[in-house]
């Protein structure tokens, strides 16, 4: 991997600061590649394990001459009681260490500022993860415009915005449904489905939320991993809120065309690429259900077993990605002792650990995606042109479900009613019963009129997504606009 920095003082220079969660790190790395493809020099602030895990996907791009450099800083594991090598939320041995991890990220500030101090000229832009607060202070100190990235779409930003303004959620019961006011579509949710900022169960976070709001209001703008055609009304509204400083430049995952890149995105895959492709090649087009719940969901084993039995009952071919954080051992024990794999071996592929999701989703055999509605997965499903079975867990995932089902009309819900947030809940309850999974899977995979129309809409949306990042497409234009906006900032700074 190239760690050496190229130097061309005339080239626009972005300092990119990602955060240690796959759902944030992966798209940030993709964004760095896209920026470099648009001629921007990019330096990514990273740490030893993250550099290898998330950064190695850039090797090919760097070798081909793209101006990307990884700046690897030491990570203070010991100082914060983290196990050696633990730099990402999904690697935490237990969830109680999450705040230690955030503090360790906070401590990178000093090293980054020392680096900027020595640079002449200074970077033209700091593109930082929203959940890191210190880059705001650093940007102010060096008078560099700061752009935020939180991995969410404009639909989510607008849902949050109208909730903050209206406080409508305060006057309803936890499971009482209410309409989010002032949105382009009629969107109904319950308080029990809202992200932590509005969720009565997670009041302890209110101090952090307030700091986030201040930090967001001080930033120059926001980059969004989506494309305008998928959420036009919400993009327009969010542009108004942010004074035009919103740039939708996605879908970011489409920057990887090569199989070899797709297979190593986010982590070393737990399954051999050839084995995976051989299995997929042996299945009929549009026939396989792919079930994966992202990188950090820690669904209770009892609930995962319910899902597994539903997949088995569906009688369709499926891929099931098994991961339950510190509870993985329990679920693997069940798989081994119950004979599940043996019973389903003719039509199932069980992946224990990290799946090459992009590779899988881009195969013609995939006919439906059962997802937890993390935004990256949702958008990757959109790009693949497959209908979705939606099973949101926490954070903004219930918003994403609404976008998929009510606005884009490319999915069917399993009927989840409340957030299950692993850092706080230790419930062994089964919230979603086998029958609910089976019903949603059948609806998504059915060949009747409704199913066909849903599939057709998904395929059309996928075409729009591909066009958006090509030259002349909306996201391509927005990337050019972002670069121009930063150039203008740099010019006006030089004049003052
Ligand atoms: N992912 C993957 N293989 C896995 C699990 C996740 O490649 O086995 C990737 C997935 O493609 C997506 C990211 O990890 O890009 C997860 O982000 P998302 O926003 O969907 O969910 P989160 O993990 O943040 O809940």
TrEMBL record:
Protein name, as recorded: Glycosyltransferase
* Region Disordered, annotated ranges: 449-474
- The EC designation for this entry is 2.4.1.-
PANTHER family in the record, alphabetically?
GLYCOSYLTRANSFERASE, UDP-GLUCOSYL TRANSFERASE 73C7-RELATED
- Looking at the Swiss-Prot or TrEMBL record, what is one Pfam family this protein matches? UDPGT
Q: Name one GO molecular function term.
A: UDP-glucosyltransferase activity
Record family assignment: Belongs to the UDP-glycosyltransferase family.
Q: Which UniProt keywords apply?
A: Glycosyltransferase, Transferase
Extract the InterPro entries matched here: UDP_glucos_trans, UDP_glycos_trans_CS
> Species name for this entry?
Deinandra increscens subsp. villosa
